[in-house]
Amino acid sequence: MSRTVDIAYDDLESAFGWVSAAGPHENAAYISMATGQIFYASSMSDTEDELPADIEDTSRYLSVLHQNDLDLGRSLALRFAEERLSDSYRTVREFFHHRGAYARFKDLLERRGLLEHWYEYERKATEGALCAWAQDNGLTVVQGPLPTEA
Questions:
Q1: Angstrom distance (rounded) from CA 41 to CA 47
Q2: What is the pTM of this model?
Q3: What's the whole-number average pLDDT of the chain?
Q4: Does 150 have pLDDT greater than 50?
Q5: Is the CA virtual torsion 5, 6, 9, 12 positive or negative?
Q6: Which residues of 82-101 are buried (b: 16+ CB within 10 A; e: fewer)?
Q7: At residue 67, what are phi and psi to the nearest 5 degrees?
């Protein structure tokens, strides 16, 4: 059985945020399966990270997924709307057929007093999906900072 690599949840969440901050395939983050080190790349701008020459080797580096790949984008917002805004579900669904959907969605949540509930729902869903994905890919997620090697 292959060994698992420890990664701090905060580091994994940051890498996921980087990848998801842009459109699919615009930003990338890669986790070394030997060390847990994360490398960042972007097709839109230069990053300070120098990528290893073998970064495309999927046996050595794990590519962090975009929020859409984990159903944490539009589909998560629609699930929340179905659960908490059933009377406005069609309206919310329509938001996501146009630009600016998240702004309109969050405006509606603010008017209904549900914005903080959304943020908590989103946080829990993200943490659950990231931890499950990490485990499925040979990573052990650690809460708090990783112990430093002596």
A1: 6
A2: 0.82
A3: 90
A4: no
A5: negative
A6: eeebeebeeebeebbeeeeb
A7: -55, -35
